[in-house]
Amino acid sequence: MTFETVKAPWSPEYEIHRMRLVKKVLDTEDKAAFRLHSDMPRYIYFAADSKNKWGHERGYRIQQVSFSGDHLPEESSMERAISWGRYKLAVTKRKEEEPASTSIYNQNDPWKPSVAFANFIDNETITNEDLVAWITVGFLHIPHAEDIPNTVTLGNAVGFLLRPYNYFDEDASIYSPDGVFFTSDQDTSMCEVNHLACLPQTASCVPNLPPFTYEGF
Q: How many whole angstroms separate alpha carbon 67 and alpha carbon 87?
């Protein structure tokens, strides 16, 4: 997203800054590797060589929810063993000899790691290639009094979303059968109207568990 300067249509003597979507193709591994604390585009997506009925390239958007904390300084002699931590997102050309970003043997000799992820990024072209997105996520949780008796998960989300982006011609969820609509003149206890009304019969194989109690609850 960038800002462009245009004259205000209602007052041409004034200028306004208007946001504009600028599309760029990241055609090499170096361009598609984003350092941990560097800026990255708000929208990043993989585009396929096919289009939907609207003429847009089918693809998937990578939307990151959380980022890992500070990375080990690169001047550290152990850093190459976990050099995947340099990046919050890196896209590379898929290779059979690069199946994982690290190895369990790295912990045995981090000074001479058997797998150094930094070597994966060598400015190869990623246009019209099978790609791998290496996504680093994480969060920092320092224990505190409110973790007793259990840690609240709210605010501790970690992960990323892989979302269809022009992949379908419309919202695919409209075909999902989990939405149920009843009218006032329908009997919701009838199996023909409400399939869940027959659930006790169809789910009769579920074991009959005794009520569970804990300290009076």
A: 10
CA distances from 117 to 13, 79, 80, 146, 152 (A): 54, 10, 8, 38, 34
For 102, residues 6+ apart whose C-beta sits below 8 A from its C-beta are: 81, 82, 84, 113, 115, 117
User: What's phi and psi for 178, nearest 5 deg?
Assistant: -85, -5
Model's pTM, two decimal places? 0.74
Tokens representing 105 are: 């043997």
80, amino acid identity:
R
pLDDT in tens, 47-88: 998 999 999 999 999 998 888 888 999 999 999 999 999 999
Residues 73, 204: Cα–Cα separation, whole Å: 59
